[in-house]
Amino acid sequence: MQESYDFAIIGSGPSGSVLAHYLTQAGAQCVMLEAGKALDKRTYPKNELHANSQLMWNGGMDTSQDAQLLFLRGKVLGGGSVINQCLLDRFDALALEDWQAKSTVDWHQLADFERHYNEVESHLCLHHFTDDEHQRNAQLFMQGLDQCGMKWTRLRRGQNNCGHNAKTGQRNDCMQCLNGCVRDAKQSMPVTFLRKARQQGLALLTEFNVTQVIHGQHFVTVFGEQQGQPRQIRARHCIMAAGAIGSTELLLKSGFSSSLPALGQGFTCHPQLMNIGLFDEPVDAHLGTFQSVKSDEPQFRQQGFKLENVFAGPIAIAMLKPGFGQEHQDFMQKYRHMACIEVAVRDATEGQIRLNNKGELVIDKRLQPADLQRAQAGLNAVERVFDAVGAQSVLKSPFSFGLHLMGGCTMGEGVHNSVVNSDFGVWGYDRLSIADSSIFPNAPGINPSLTIMAMAHRASEVLLAKYPCRSQYTRHIPAQDRSDLVLESVTETKTVVLKSAAEKSTLANASAKKMKLKSEGNKVTTEV
Fold first, then answer.
1. Cα(509)–Cα(511) distance, rounded to whole angstroms?
2. Is-contact 462 424, C-beta < 8 A?
3. Fewer CB within a 10 Å sphere, N or C end of the chain?
4. CATH numbers and ranges of domains, the chain
5. pLDDT of 90
6. Residue 91 CB contacts under 8 Å (≥ 6 apart), including other chains
7. Does the pLDDT at position 519 exceed 60?
8. What's the rounded Cα separation, in Å, for the pair 285 and 292?
């Protein structure tokens, strides 16, 4: 049975969830399609191995074509917001000036982003870390930066009652948040925007793997499978919010590349290099507040990198040490004595997302000399910091993690060099929009989560201006009853087929004060 809605949203991360909230709040009938499972604080995996297999695409093992970059992307209800640290920074003038120079989009400037940042932040609990929350890993980082004359600042995180209390000594080990927050303290989408959208009538379909999007004159049809069963969803408008790789891959597999020559171009990320310093005394970087400090050195920003204190579980740390056998085992036995500083590079070289002759995804992303120069400048700074605080030795990262995936469907002012226009619409396809990180013109060098949310808010305004919803009424249909509903029209006047007189009567009684009803046989037309 085919189902119809005002908006179909593909993806449940920061973009999709924010869009779902504002669209349902305005009265639109929306469905969200998520490939991952609906997990929560009771069911999130408790260890790295299960987290990789249950929360990430391909077990967290998506690689670039040359295998020098390992890309991590969420596959769970809430998307990347479930597995990231929820660090929420606004873009600076440098990032947006570079965006505007590349895209020529007028509103890519701080003054235009201000109200969108303010709006989405009003729905989040934001926390700046304090001195009593820094554990030993952060303290060593700060001391080293101070001794080297390098500036630093406290991170701002989306969290609410993480369980830290300096007076009582209570401490929560926040590294677990990489597997999903077990306290619902992290401001991930399932406990913020997505929760509100569901309360406002959002239809949610999880474990739904979208295989194709067909754009028609009057509606968009989304084809896919849910737990092995074929499904079709029809909507007035479809919004891609599946992330840089997900949205780009879906458009490629749906055949849009012939009319969108820039599709797949401009792929960027923030390559991350984790570096281990070994100390005589225990550091216990795995305990307490996981990540609380970053460098704030203007010279670093101009050089294209930043430093942050981070850490990881034993599996991830073991991957950083080349070799095997006794030497590797001896290294891992020093786990409690490890501190970690990460170099986050502002990507300077664009890559490409494409399909090979077999229709398989290929991520062609190589670190070029400009990227390697930035990485090396960061590694040099890390060595200075570790040396200043007495590290016995330093293990430099042998490879890079590609985080904060961006581009592939970039925003611009022409179909020749972009996929999306300044109003988030796909060039030449009036009923298709993209509002996730795939539209970023280039890498900002700043955590993108908050800006993704801000842009989703702007996109919701554009869409509601195009499809005005004149009522707060949204009909709620239990999942088990959804197959009985067919929208014969997805215009402002909606016609639904009701299979029983009881359902017809119930709808009429519940809606009498909120809408006009016209009854013809088994059809009820609602004028919203």
1. 6
2. yes
3. N
4. 1-39+76-81+188-266+406-477 (3.50.50.60), 50-74+124-185+270-403 (3.30.560), 493-527 (no CATH)
5. 98
6. 110, 113, 444, 446, 451
7. no
8. 12
> Nearest 5°: phi and psi at 238?
-115, 135
Taking a C-beta distance cutoff of 8 angstroms, is the pair 438, 128 a contact? no
State how far the Cα of 304 lies from the Cα of 300, in Å rounded to an integer.
6
Burial, 65: exposed, middle or buried (Cβ in 10 Å; 0-12, 13-18, 19+)?
middle
The H or E element spanning position 275 is strand 265-278
Structure tokens at 242: 């599946």
Number of Cα atoms under 13 Å in the Cβ half of residue 429: 27
HSE (side-chain half, CA atoms, 13 Å) at 303: 21
* pLDDT of 515 above 90: no
pLDDT computed for residue 432 by the predictor: 98
Q: What's the pLDDT tens digit per position in 53-89?
A: 999 999 888 899 988 899 999 999 999 999 999 999 9
From residue 441, how far is each of 11, 103, 268 by CA, in Å? Answer: 21, 6, 9
Distance CA 400, CA 68 (A): 7
Q: Quick check: 1 pLDDT over 70?
A: no
- Parallel, antiparallel, or unpaired: how do β-strands 429-434 and 229-240 relate? parallel
Roughly how many angstroms between the first and final C-alpha of the chain, as a whole number? Answer: 24
Element (H, E) at 351: strand 351-355
- Are the C-beta atoms of residues 235 and 490 closer than 8 Å to each other? yes
Q: Residue 2: its pLDDT value, please?
A: 55
Strand, coil or helix: what is 175? helix
Among the listed residues 380, 362, 466, 472, the one whose alpha carbon sits nearest the alpha carbon of residue 7:
466
C-alpha dist (Å) from residue 237 to 368, 374, 417, 437 = 39, 42, 24, 19
Neighbour count for residue 163 (Cβ, 10 Å): 12
- Identify which has the larger pLDDT, 527 or 135: 135
pLDDT of the residue at 226: 96
Q: What is the C-alpha to C-alpha distance for residues 414 and 421, in angstroms, rounded to an integer? A: 7
CB 273 within 8 A of CB 396: yes
Q: What is the pLDDT of residues 128-170, one digit of tens each?
A: 998 888 999 999 999 999 999 999 999 999 999 887 766 666 6
d(C-alpha 489, C-alpha 518), whole Å: 15
Lowest mean pLDDT among 96-100, 105-109, 234-238, 284-288: 284-288
Is residue 280 scored above 80 in pLDDT? yes
pLDDT at 167: 66
Task: Please tell me which residue, 2 or 435, carries the higher pLDDT value.
Answer: 435
Q: Exposure of 22 by Cβ count < 10 A (0-12 exposed, 13-18 middle, 19+ buried)?
A: buried
Q: Helices 136-147 and 369-388 meet at what angle, rounded to 10?
A: 100
**Whole-angstrom distance, CA of residue 309 vs CA of residue 311:** 7
Q: Is the dihedral of CA 4, 9, 12, 15 positive or negative?
A: negative
3-state DSSP call for residue 473? Answer: coil
